[in-house]
Specification:
Strand content of chain A: 5-15%
Structural class of chain A: alpha+beta
Number of strands of chain B: 8
Oligomer: heterodimer
Radius of gyration of chain A: 21 Å
Largest sheet of chain B: 8 strands, mixed
CATH topology of chain B: Rossmann fold
Helix content of chain B: 40-55%
Helix content of chain A: 25-40%
Structural class of chain B: alpha/beta
Order of helices and strands of chain B: EHEHHHEEHEHEHHEHHEHHH
Shape of chain B: globular
CATH superfamily of one domain in chain A: Cell division topological specificity factor MinE
CATH architecture of one domain in chain A: 2-Layer Sandwich
Distance between the termini of chain A: 41 Å
Bound molecules: adenosine-5'-diphosphate, magnesium ion
Strand content of chain B: 15-25%
CATH class of one domain in chain A: Alpha Beta
CATH class of chain B: Alpha Beta
Chain lengths: 101, 272
């Protein structure tokens, strides 16, 4: 980018149609990939999620809930992870958020 | 054992046949014994793109039905040694292809060739499924355009579930991406999907980017695969892609807008 472009306003490009293409593709494909995979990937997804989350916070494996809600033109994949209450020796205001230690 | 490579895309008119012809020719130029099979029964075109249309006597359906021997149907290329073409039938429909028939042909070709390229028809119906069924590797041809990218994603799903490798739970089909008809100028203007966005969405290794080029039409007009046109950027991009396929490490070219500087005008040339 040349210094002239700054005056032409190129540093902040307006939204382009190619940008819209990317966004629309990402949404439609996320959707289609889920229906393609079928529900049978859910148990594995759940197992892997537990492993990943447990790397950052200790959780009860039973406190991870994964569900797939298949709708007509929209499906949702809901992932719910219940975190344990703050431990007694932690500062009172510590939030149970994911944190690499 | 030969490697079976399907050239596929889901969507029609994206450059599968152009890429099949270029790749087959390039592999043969590199000294590999290569055969390219047209699976588009009823809409045969590979013969024209390869410039062998007047030499077609028998086709793949004749071989499957036993009306001809495989080596009667194979057409040896006159430009590049070790390149052969197996044409599709123009008069029959896709039901004339059977899995057993194709299996026998691929088995037999495996004895003689290093690479068996399968030029897939569009769609995800029988012809396309048969073209990819025996594949060890897949070249997914994609245009920088929403419907093409979506269909490529779909065909990747099919490769991962309906190929012989998937059915037998062997190592999956090795996937390669070829982005064709790429126009860096339009990309820069924000009118066309960026290479990086396509890569991010499809998430398979990139084998090559073929620019939109007038030389492709010139090549098909005369029946010479564009890879034989060493001065055209599309021809060079295909050459690079073949070299990468064979393990060479080459930088991607023709992905940025042409700089009309003095040097590039002298040495680079315009879209030829
Ligand atoms: N890189 C390119 N630049 C310009 N035109 C191209 C390019 N690649 C393919 N085409 C054109 O696109 C059309 C479809 O190509 P083809 O290889 O027959 O696609 P498919 O086999 O996927 O249906 C043809 O007219 C071809 O000349
Ligand atoms: Mg074709």
């Amino acid at each position: 980018m040349s210094w002239l472009d700054v005056f032409r306003g190129k540093s902040k490009p307006p939204p382009t149609s190619a940008g819209a293409a990317k966004e629309r593709l990402q949404i439609v494909l996320a959707h289609e990939r889920i229906s393609r995979a079928g529900d049978d990937f859910l148990p594995r997804l759940q197992r892997e999620l537990i492993q990943v989350v447990a790397r950052y916070v200790s959780i009860d494996p039973k406190a991870v809930n994964v569900s797939l809600d298949r709708g007509g033109d929209m499906s949702t994949l809901a992932i719910e992870v219940e975190l344990p209450p703050p431990s007694k020796d932690a500062p009172a205001d510590a939030k149970p958020e994911a944190r690499a230690s | 054992m030969a490697q079976v490579i399907v050239v596929t895309s889901g969507k029609g008119g994206v450059g599968k046949t152009t890429s099949s012809a270029a790749f087959a020719t390039g592999l043969a130029q590199a000294g590999k014994k290569t055969v390219v099979i047209d699976f588009d029964v009823g809409l045969r075109n590979l013969d024209l793109i390869m410039g062998v249309e007047r030499r077609v006597v028998f086709d793949i359906v004749n071989v499957i039905t036993g009306e001809a021997k495989l080596n009667q149907a194979l057409i040896r290329d006159k430009r590049v040694d070790s390149l052969s073409i197996l044409p599709a039938s123009q008069t029959r429909d896709k039901d004339a292809l059977t899995k057993e028939g194709v299996a026998t042909i691929i088995e037999e070709l495996s004895q003689e060739f290093d690479y068996i390229l399968c030029d897939s028809p569009a769609g995800i119906e029988k012809g396309a499924l048969l073209a990819l069924y025996f594949a060890d590797q897949a070249i997914v041809v994609t245009n920088p355009e929403v419907s093409s990218v979506r269909d490529s994603d779909r065909i990747l799903g099919v490769l991962q579930s309906k190929s012989k490798r998937a059915e037998e739970k062997r190592d999956p089909v090795k996937e390669h991406l070829i982005v064709t008809r790429y126009d860096p100028n339009r990309v820069e203007k924000g009118e066309m999907l960026k290479l990086d966005d396509i890569r991010e969405i499809l998430a398979i290794p990139l084998l090559g980017v073929i620019p939109e080029s007038e030389s492709v039409l010139k090549a098909s007009n005369t029946g010479n695969p564009v890879i034989l046109d060493g001065v055209s950027n599309a021809g060079q991009a295909y050459k690079d892609a073949v070299a990468r396929f064979l393990g060479e490490d080459r930088p991607h070219r023709f992905i940025d807008p042409e700089k009309r500087g003095f040097l590039s005008r002298l040495f680079g040339g315009r879209a030829a």
